[in-house]
Design the sequence.
């Protein structure tokens, strides 16, 4: 049996909008200082999901990064 869990990363924009934003961030023309960045190592992925669920508003960027 499976838990049948689905995780959706974002519903704010389509793929081309995301690509445009990534290009702007890379070029330095997109101000990302409004985001609260939180990075978790892979072994703390469950903690990252809990942190994302606790978000009370504003912009939060919860990232699971293998190798940190």
Sequence:
């Amino acid at each position: 049996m499976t838990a049948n869990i689905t995780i959706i990363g974002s519903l704010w924009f389509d793929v081309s909008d995301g690509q445009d934003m990534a290009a702007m961030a890379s070029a330095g023309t997109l101000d990302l200082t409004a985001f609260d960045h939180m990075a978790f190592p892979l072994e703390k992925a469950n903690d990252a999901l809990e942190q994302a669920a606790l978000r009370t508003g504003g912009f939060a960027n919860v990232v699971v990064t293998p190798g940190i």
Q: What stands out?
A: Residues 10 and 45 are 18 Å apart (CA to CA).
